Structures
1.
Amino acid sequence: MAELFYDDDADLSIIQGRKVAVLGYGSQGHAHALSLRDSGVDVRVGLHEGSGSRARAEEQGLRVTTPAEAAAEADVIMILVPDPVQAKVYEESVAPNLKDGDALFFGHGLNIRYEFIKPPANVDVCMVAPKGPGHLVRRQYEEGRGVPCIVAVEQDAGGSAFELALSYAKGIGGTRAGVIKTTFTEETETDLFGEQAVLCGGTAALVKAGFETLVEAGYQPEIAYFECLHELKLIVDLMYEGGLQKMRWSVSETAEWGDYVSGPRVVNDQTKAEMKKILGEIQDGSFARNWMAEYNAGLPKYTEYKKADEDHLLETTGKKLRSLMSWVDEAE
Ligand code: NAD
Ligand code: MG
Ligand code: MG
Ligand code: MG
Ligand code: MG
């Protein structure tokens, strides 16, 4: 079972005694920088000259420098730029400015796990990854609560990297909720698998296949949209609140019976065998290598897939129907 750490296990003064650079000011970057600052930590934000986020970070009272200057000033460098550009930012701005005893921090393990970034042996390499989007991380912090984080140490050059990582997690409110210890390998592989097989890939494919089945059988697309996409939120909310049991308690007995007898026919042994293949490609690094090649080639297939799904009847139907539901637009 996982090891859990709370506020009492973490010493905030460790991170308060360091100089932190947060590179990037997107979803995670803004939440980390603002909450660390409010926790009494010396923070600067590193953004390239033309970055649209510069003005926003400054308005919110943070000092902004270039990524290279931030990395040079700081002794804890948190890299929160998008994963596919991290290696470039690291090579250009971070590596030339790393000193003995510095700590390199990440919010996701991809670049370390697949060695797109290879830090020198004289720095700590840590991960603090909140299990929620940055805006929730920041809002919870401001309300005196926190989003659970996972923390990992890949390289412990100074002998106290884990204490440093826990201290950082406390600075963004993570230990108020609870911090789980993991490894870069476990975090990266499970994150990629989850988003591909279940959360994004699996769910999108399931919704599309269900919608297409109904429409091809002659049912109206609007009705198919409600049944296969719109109502999914209700089901997922129930699972989120109380697992499969609460979902089954809430739906009709007919729906529950259909769940038991038909679900395993849709997601069957063949599906699971394919999931194992997907996991294998994540573990052997071929997924990550192929994705970086696609990214560096200018995203040709990515753009093609995106366009094809934007034009799908599911999406055009959804657009029309959502405009009828005033409350849907208002959601965050
Ligand atoms: P984001 O896309 O929201 O923000 C990226 C930031 O980097 C922006 O401020 C952008 O201006 C800046 N940026 C882009 N290109 C740059 C460049 N070449 N040089 C310097 N700055 C550049 O990213 P995010 O979602 O906050 O993700 C950051 C990290 O956090 C990733 O490793 C991601 O896997 C991880 N993470 C994200 C979430 C999430 O919910 N979004 C959750 C956990 C972990
Ligand atoms: Mg994830
Ligand atoms: Mg991910
Ligand atoms: Mg129904
Ligand atoms: Mg029931």
2.
Amino acid sequence: MAYNLLKGKRGIISGALNEESIAWKVALKAHEEGAEIVLTNAPLAMRMGEINKLAETCNAQIIPADATSVEDLENLFSKSTEILGGKIDFVLHSIGMSPNIRKGKNYGDLNYDWFQKTLDISALSFHKMMAVAEKQDAMNEWGSIVALSYIAAQRVFPDYTDMSQAKAVLESIARNYGYRFAKLKNVRVNTISQSPTMTTAGSGVGGFDAFFEYANKMSPLGNASAEDCANYCIMMFSDLTRKVTMQNLMHDGGFSSTGITEDIVEMISPKQ
Ligand code: NAI
């Protein structure tokens, strides 16, 4: 059911790779809620072509941008304001990739060039996006910017390796740019810390199925799905959350506040 929460708003949504992507669901819901959007992803990711289906459904244009390239991001923001016919009200950063995870490197054996790539793609890109938006004065007053994070920023999940540091940097950028953008334009900046979710990026992490199941059993409400996450993003883009900023918002079915659950006890208790 749609509530017209984003009626008249203009947004940029990054990171929709396929139907499983969290950004894909956010784009569908933003469209349903009345927003005009532009989609973006890395030029390489677009070769798969799936994003065209989404663009058609959402009546959106696609602007390729490698999120590590300031030049690409400048083009993204200037074209978006042109296409959408005005300043931007919301931005979703839904971008993450670690070459070390892809290549199965363990934490004691990281390739440092790849580590820097992980940080650049998954965290610094968020700073670059906001710096470009600021310099072009592309954000509307009371706009909202959201990036997606994971609890490995605060706690150890061994297989998440260098992405843990990337998420810690991402959350810190949200706080620091959140302060700056609030003072400049009343724009809010937050991260949503999402449950493990079955997507291309998610399932690339070693032992993901066990990871997913464990989190599900440790969360009194169960894992939050990609669709649940999209609903939360829409609320954050809406006018109902104007004074929420510089936060890392846990969206995890209660996982982060839970010590143990009956489900876990049952799982590891010896059978009688
Ligand atoms: P996904 O694989 O569908 O999305 C990741 C996106 O990042 C892809 O669309 C990919 O093309 C894009 N990307 C990679 N390098 C890029 C670059 N250089 N420039 C522009 N885009 C680039 O997976 P998912 O899960 O939807 O990921 C979205 C966000 O959610 C990521 O930040 C991820 O870390 C975060 N997240 C995911 C969780 C999960 O378990 N799936 C849990 C918590 C957070």
3.
Amino acid sequence: MSSVSVPPPKCLQKPLVVPHRHMFGPGPSNVPPRILQAGANPVIGHMHPEIFEIMNDIKSGIQYMFQTQNKMTFAVSGTGHTAMECAIFNTVESGESVLTAVNGIWGERAAEMAERIGARVNTIVAAPGGFFTNEEIEQALSKHRPVVFFLAHGESSTGVLHPLDGIGQLCHKYNCLFLVDSVASVGGAPLCMDQLGIDILYTGSQKVLNAPPGTAPISFSERACQKIFNRRTKPVSFFLDLSWLANYWGCDGKPSRVYHHTGPVTAFYSLRESLAVLVEEGLENSWERHQKAAEYFHTGLESMGLKLFVKEKKARLPTVTTIVAPRGYDWKEITTYIMKTHNLEISGGLGPSVGLVLRVGLMGCNSSKANVDMVLAALKDALTHCHKSKV
Ligand code: PMP
């Protein structure tokens, strides 16, 4: 009698089919052929010298993208959430105070992560679409005396680009590390880690970088490393333990690297290529291109009679635009219609913005006038064809 009782699934006897799609939601964005092809290179060992060289190139690329001299700069194997947990699990010990700024879902998630490892978490809360003044932040820092303050630079659930000037200095005045989420913003909006006094900065590969999801650039300042390497207890996660990751990425100055986990080498190839694309264009040119496309898009939306969810112009995220959900329509019908008819992804809200907004992401290579025109035409078409209630 055969020991195999589960038959081979029929579905896997059919070829893989993946459609082409315009990825204009808040991520992932389209991956250009050049970056896809880089990922199709042969798999070699994750400890081979050629891979270490590729990892070193990635480090240099991230230092450029983040504008930092930090030695402790690398890419976590995993998505943006992995980098979030890497930042929080390494810097925070059980019982310590953490402050998160909540103006959308990302501050809520950071608070939950810190809570799960036993931190005492406090939040400052702004309405979706809003942001915080430096006075509000200083008040909370002086009240709660956190070891870490979390802020999302690009709040992709609400479309807010948070001003960052002066916050790093405030954190340092209160002996607190400044942790910034730039998953939705870096490369698409001005951000200089060292100048802003940011202690931990992370992003994801699948937004402005146009690489497949699965790697997450992160960087730690000297101050952050001081705290992390003087912990009383080990971080709860072995996989995300900075001392192991630092060695794997050659950031700890030790002569040899020790096996920690099998790095996703093909994802490293794609990430390296995406950083090479950014280097070729130049960071400032990329910021400017995103800003121009966003302004062109916002003008087009307003001329169609649609309203932008973020009232203050300078706080509008150039990469992810939030549009007030058009009155009388079911937002879900609009996004479904656009997907079906235009083969184009845009999305509804997330967390506190569900039901309030439509979200359109134009990131990296997707950020162009031609794509803005495509989205505007799709929206016009949807508003003509989707059901509008009379009330
Ligand atoms: N932070 C922000 C601002 C994001 O937009 C996202 C992804 N939508 C994440 C964190 C989490 O990234 P991931 O989905 O890659 O885990």
